[in-house]
Amino acid sequence: MAEYKAVRVEAGRGGWGGPLTIKPTDDRKLIYSVTGGGIHPVAQRIAELTGGEAFDGFKSSAPFDKIAVAVIDCGGTARVGVYPMKKVPTVDVHATSPAGPLAMFIKEDIFVSGVAPENVKEA
Amino acid sequence: MTLPQTRYATTVTAVGEQVPEFAGQGLLIWFAEGAPEELHFFAVLHRPTVTTGGVRAGDVVRIDDKAFRVTAVGEVANDNMVNLGHMDLKANGATEAPLPGDICLEELPLPEPRPGTELVIEGDAAAADAHR
Questions:
Q1: How far is B1 from chain A (nearest CA, A)?
Q2: Helix or strand or coil: residue A35?
Q3: Model pLDDT, residue B80
Q4: Could you list the pLDDT tens digit for every one of the 132 residues in chain B?
Q5: Is there a contact between B105 and B61 (Cβ–Cβ < 8 Å)?
Q6: Which of B38, B76, B84, B88 is the best mutation test for A, with the most CBs of A within 10 A?
Q7: How close, in Å, is residue B91 to chain A by CA atoms?
């Protein structure tokens, strides 16, 4: 059994939602980065602080029930809604607010945006 | 004299089940093949051949035989397009992008892409987005 720690993720400059507390478990240990250019520094920091496993969603796929948090670099329309719709806590590195066709799923208790590495702190 | 430059070119490989509905609302969401499966249901999946980027207002998006003038480009749209093959095409005629990922087009009915549909974005070579 691995030891996991919790982090608190706050909205960054111009961001919306949160704060979210993220604590991986053995069942849900993936820090799922759905971003351009590999694992995003925000996902890397969450993984380092929690003991979760950084995972590149564009390299291979993972079932939703293994994901502790999804980190996205969404411009506001598509990815912002998909992971909240699946009840996966979602961190957007861009400062977006609820919008797009899935906006109704984007709530403060499951989504936070504008997040930079310094907005991720030990809980 | 100005030279046209192809900023992006790609061929559709698959179309998600929600795409016709979104197209009817003036929205086409694109991702390159290899995007995570959870994004497929609302996306046009495609295999790009030109990924130069630098799309800006005034460029032209061609989807098969239909052409759309670009009216505005959000600040992260080019990064998304180049890195992930991701585009949010919105036929809303906006002259300022409402969302950072938007590529806004003139307000005309969008076609429903099908496997084999070709998309090309062209613009003036001298006027590529200076941020790229």
A1: 35
A2: coil
A3: 96
A4: 567 899 999 999 999 999 999 999 999 999 999 999 999 999 999 999 999 999 999 999 999 999 999 999 999 999 999 999 999 999 999 999 999 999 999 999 999 999 999 999 999 877 666 555
A5: yes
A6: B38
A7: 14
Of B39, B83, B100, the CB nearest to A78: B39
Smallest Cβ–Cβ distance between A36 and the set B36, B74, B83 belongs to B83
Helix (H, G, I), strand (E, B) or coil at A11: coil
Query: Cα torsion at A18, A59, B117, B100 (round to 10°)?
Result: 30
Cβ atoms B60, B66 nearer than 8 A: no
Q: What is the pTM of this model?
A: 0.93
Q: From A120, A121, A119, A117, select the one nearest A41 (Cα to Cα).
A: A117
Q: How far apart are CA B112 and CA A106, in angstroms?
A: 27
Q: Which of B14, B79, B41 is nearest to A78 (CA)?
A: B41
B80 in A contact zone (CB under 8 Å) = yes
Pull the structure tokens for residue A94: 């861009």
Q: Does B43 touch chain A (CB under 8 A)?
A: yes
ipTM of the complex: 0.91
| B51–A contact, CB cutoff 8 A | no
Positive or negative: CA dihedral B122, B97, A118, B85: negative
Given a contact cutoff of 8 angstroms between Cβ atoms, the answer to whether A68 and A91 are in contact is no
Whole-number Å distance between alpha carbons of B83 and A5 = 32
